[in-house]
Amino acid sequence: MTATDDDRIALQARDVRFDFSGLRTDWIPGEPLASHVIDVLHMLLPEGERWFVEVFSQALPLVRDAALAEDVRGFIGQEAVHAESHQGAQDHLIDAGIDVSGYVEQIEWIFSDLLGERGLTGAEAREWLVERVGLIAAVEHFTAVLGEWILHSPDLDAAGADAEMLDMLRWHGAEEVEHRSVAHDLYMHLDGRYLRRIRAMLIGGPALAKLWTDGTAVLCARDPRLRGTPQRRVRLRDYLRAARRGLVPGPGMFAKAVLTYLNPRFHPARYGDTDAAIAYLAVSPAARRAGGTA
Amino acid sequence: MSTAGTAPPPHPTPAANALATITTVAARLAVRSGHRRRPAGPVDRSLPVEVRALRRPCPDVAVLDLVPAGSAPLPRWRPGAHVDVELPSGLLRQYSLCGDPADRSAYRIAVRAVPGGAGSAEVHALTAGTRLRLHGPRNAFPLATAPSYLFLAGGIGITPIAPMVRAAHAAGIPWRLVHTGRDLASMPLSDELAALAPGRVHRRPDDTAGVPTAADLLSGMDDGAAVHCCGPPPMIEAVRRAVPAGQRFHAERFSPPPIREGRPFTVRIVGGPDVAVPADRSALDAVRAVRPDVPYSCRQGFCGTCHVRLVAGTTQVDTATPDPAGPGRTALCVGRAAGDEVEVDLGR
Q1: Overall number of domains in chain B
Q2: Contacts of B33 in chain A (CB under 8 A)
Q3: What is the extent of the structural domain holding B164?
Q4: From A113, which residue of chain B is nearest by alpha-carbon distance?
Q5: What angle do CA B188, B190, B191 make, to 5 degrees?
Q6: Do A294 and B250 touch (CB under 8 A)?
Q7: Does the keyword Nuclease apply (chain B) (predicted)?
Q8: Residue B198 to residue B191: CA distance in whole angstroms
Q9: Which of A92, B251, B288, B334 suits a disulfide with A20, CB 3.0-4.6 Å?
Q10: Are A10 and B237 an interchain contact pair (Cβ–Cβ within 8 Å)?
Q11: Of B6, B16, B253, which has the smallest distance from its Cβ to A293's Cβ?
């Protein structure tokens, strides 16, 4: 009884709230690096997911399939709530004295300027829109893979990770798994050409890797609790050690995700565990408080 | 290479400059790719069907078998799925599929006649041979694997639960069903399910057993059981609160409730036109009639997609609930004018 492609899940946003006021900066206790590797999401996603909302809202009028349009609408609402939830966590990082303003300004510039409308109009604007849908489809493959990972990360529980943060990440991960096909389906509807899809991955994949690496370095360097400690400097072997211990996603997972995407017959529905997402949403404290959960 | 149309990075670094170049190349390639892109063609997924049979297991419940009007089999579905039924009058209603998912030659729905309900009255008046159009199926109540299940159904809420029970039974997963209702004569489908495993089905009519509390419904459940509940909203809410933390609770996710006790008002859109919002519709629906591309999603006020700038006037959800968009903004989906009109700016 595994939900598959023939179960078209009705996508709806959930009205979740999180309270990070009591969160430690090493919310995986004693593991500042692993905590900050995941904290990068709080700096990337508020702007990134708002950009998804913007691009998909602009793309909706091009959609000529009512069922896909319904999926895209559900996707937009879920992404909008994700952005706000990560914004709450980002605000907490700032309150905790970690100055991430420079990094966040750079992220804002990337999403609003480089990946904004670029002053294009008419047919050129429309094609740039389709290109950005392709980029989002590539990035959404990673978010689905990350969602899958966080839903199956018992080592974080064993390490005593903060329950509120884990719930936020797993609720988010479950919704990413739940809506993992939407961006791909939208790209396939609007264009669908293989080389263009791969081109988007060749741009999105390395850019994401660089932003993630830089973000981790910034968080560790600026964390006042790490002042004067060797953990202030991020070392590759420390990351690999955390990955081996199951506290952060490992490099192999990302490499495999890219290889999967290269398959000309790739479809997200064939990867990922919808059952795990549904099961988590049925126990998530935030989703339970929000009501209307399935 | 020129990076026209973009501002310089706030913090110039080699990586930022490289990214600016890469995105500029991407935008140019996008324009070139557009020359050979075929625009999306229309996709019609609606399903023409015909009413094959209508029977009444209870005086106020109609069970309909719907068969495809063409030769193609109906789309696959899983327990918990529903279809949107377009009735001959044009009314659109959602009904859970309650038949056998393996049978691709027919969909079954069961509809209780609701006093004053135009949709259910129309369904009850349908006759064999009538053509209908369906949209879907969609699943807002998916069934995922669990060590065991407790199914709770209130009245006609048995419809999505019935195929779940059959699926759990077929998979050999332990399950139990509690079906509540006014009296046995108003509780369809569970008699057939009791034939599968009489010991697992508890039919609990209020007239003899009394109205159950959530604790009654959950009593004797396994620790690892996934609770699946469908019934009147107060029943779902009570069970939601009573299921212990850490134990799975599943309920159907519904569309927003209809607007009650709304007052008509006017939305003036900056740059025109003025839109009249009837008492029973949202500003979003009214605005979309003239601006179909206005973004929205949750239609419950919280996702923020349809929040726009409020230029003049004040809005609220109702006298007890403020507009969730906050000061200076309004959620088109739930915000209503406190007076007779408001002015909004749909521009970004």
Answers
A1: 3
A2: 127, 130-131, 191, 193, 196
A3: 149-252
A4: B6
A5: 90
A6: yes
A7: no
A8: 9
A9: A92
A10: no
A11: B253
Band (A291; pLDDT cuts 50, 70, 90): confident
Interchain proximity B34–A124, CB inside 8 Å: yes
Q: Which contiguous run of DSSP H or E holds residue B49? A: strand B47-58
| Predicted pLDDT at A2 | 40
Q: Is the model's pLDDT at A1 over the cut of 50?
A: no
d(CA B167, CA B145): 10
Using the predicted structure, report yes or no on whether residue A90 has a pLDDT greater than 80: yes
For residue B86, what is the domain's CATH number?
2.40.30.10
User: Nearest CA to A90 among A251, A280, A283, A219?
Assistant: A219
**Residue B122 shares a structural domain with residue B160:** no
CATH code for position B277: 3.10.20.30
Q: Are residues B341 and B322 in the same domain?
A: yes
CB contact under 8 A, B7 and A113: yes
Of A53, A113, A278, the CB nearest to B305: A53
Which of A10, A106, A275 is opposite residue B253, by nearest beta carbon?
A: A10
Domain termination residue (choose one: B218, B252, B286):
B252
Tell me which chain B residues have a C-beta less than 8 angstroms from the C-beta of A48: none
Residue B133 lies in a domain: yes
**Separation of CA B220 from chain center:** 31
Q: Is residue B57 part of a domain?
A: yes
> Tokens 């990972």 identify what position?
A149
Out of A81, A110, A128, closest to residue B303 by CB: A81
- Note the ipTM here: 0.92
Residues making up chain B, counted from first to last: 348
Q: In terms of CA atoms, which chain B residue is nearest residue A201? A: B26
Please tell me which of the candidates B4, B40, B142 has its beta carbon nearest to residue A278. Answer: B142
Whether residues B122 and B161 share a domain: the answer is no
Question: pTM for this structure?
Answer: 0.94
Give the span between the Cα atoms of B273 and B290, in whole angstroms: 8
Question: Which residues 6+ apart lie within 8 Å of A89 measured at CB?
Answer: A18, A20, A23, A39, A42, A165, A168
Whether residue B134 sits in one domain with residue B73? yes
B133 with B153, same domain: the answer is: no
Partner B, chain A 173-212, Cβ-Cβ below 8 Å: 189-191, 193, 196, 199, 203, 207, 210
**For chain A, what is the mean pLDDT?**
94
What are the CB-based long-range contacts (under 8 Å, 24+) for A94-100?
A96/A23, A96/A25, A96/A224, A97/A223, A97/A224, A98/A25, A98/A219, A98/A222, A98/A223, A98/A224, A99/A222, A100/A43, A100/A218, A100/A219, A100/A222
Please list the residues that pair with A9 across neighbouring strands.
Answer: B139
- Quickly list DSSP for B164-221: HHHHHHHHT--EEEEEEESSGGG--SHHHHHTT-GGGEEEEEHHHH-PPPHHHHHTT-
User: Are B247 and B274 found together in one domain?
Assistant: no
Residues of B in contact with A199 (CB under 8 A): 26, 29
| Residue-range domain boundaries for chain A | 27-290
What are the structure tokens assigned to B94, written together? 């959602």
Cross-chain residue pair A68–B43, CB shorter than 8 Å: yes
Based on the domain organization, do B125 and B218 belong to the same domain?
Answer: no
Q: Which tens digits make up the pLDDT trace of A62-83?
A: 999 999 999 999 999 999 999 9
Among B98, B96, B101, B93, CA closest to B74: B101
